[in-house]
Amino acid sequence: MTTVGYGDTYPISPLGKTVAGITFLGGLAIIAFPIAILGSKFLELYLEAEAKKKKRQLAKLVKLEEVNVQTEEEKLAESYPFFPVPTRKLLLWKISVDDEISKLEGKLDALKQQAKTIERALQLFDW
User: Fold this and answer.
1) What angle do CA 88, 90, 96 make, to 5 degrees?
2) Which residues contact 24 (CB under 8 A, 6 or more apart)?
3) Are the CB atoms for 79 and 87 separated by under 8 Å?
4) Whole-angstrom distance, CA of residue 80 vs CA of residue 69
5) Are 17 and 11 in contact (CB under 8 A)?
6) How far apart are CA 125 and CA 127, in angstroms?
7) For a 10 Å CB count at each end of the chain, is N or C smaller?
8) What angle do CA 116, 120, 125 make, to 5 degrees?
9) Residue 76 in contact with residue 88, Cβ under 8 Å?
10) Distance (Å, rounded) from C-alpha 51 to C-alpha 43?
């Protein structure tokens, strides 16, 4: 940026004021453009580094899951070694059905709450 001194001398004529304004804008541009370019490049590199970090973490998680993965059938076989295979399959189906039922119950509760809200709104409007 430029300055014209300590304020004791300043441009008076229109031409001097124009030159001072152009000088001011030029100084501003000289500082602003490189900062914007460096800032955008820094952001780009930072986002790349974050993406690589997430990718490494995900790879570690996948590796750990591959080591520790046990299917539901294997878990049931460990839990109920004395049950025959068809019975274990029935237990597996029961677990999945119970999960679906709990999800549906949650949706039903949400619908009941929405119905109450709609009913209250209709009462407010005397419908």
Assistant:
1) 105
2) 1, 2
3) no
4) 18
5) yes
6) 6
7) C
8) 150
9) yes
10) 12
Tell me the helices (H) and strands (E) count for the chain, helix number first.
Answer: 3, 0
The total of other beta-carbon atoms located within 10 Å of residue 11's CB is 14
Return the residue matching tokens 């986002």. Answer: 47
pTM for this one?
Answer: 0.39
| Alpha helix segments (H runs only) across 69-84 | 72-79
- The predicted-structure confidence for 30-70, as pLDDT tens digits, reads as follows 999 999 999 999 999 999 999 999 999 999 888 877 766 66
Nearest to 93 by CA among 69, 76, 106, 107: 76
Distance CA 38, CA 43 (A): 9
